[in-house]
Known about the structure:
Elements lengths: L5 H14 L12 H23 L5 H4 L22 H4 L4
Amino acid sequence: MGIEGNEMADELADAGAKEGRMDNDRSAExxxxxxxxxxxxxxxxxxxxxxxxxxxxxxxxxxxxxLGYAIAEPPELRLPQSSASPARRSTxx
Length: 93
């Protein structure tokens, strides 16, 4: 003794599972959201791979930050400390 309608739903589910994917089944097609998710994942993998290959060639000042993206060392980081702008030299004390 089953719940009315439940047995019919079970039979339809079993039949659908046995038939497999139908050609006009749009639920299996990619969605805009899914495409965006895949694109972001691929971009993250590509960036991580690039970072791993380039990591040893970066300056020590960037390696210590462990950045996950490409960046070039700005020339300001190579200036002597005394050449920093007055605002940065001032501590306010």
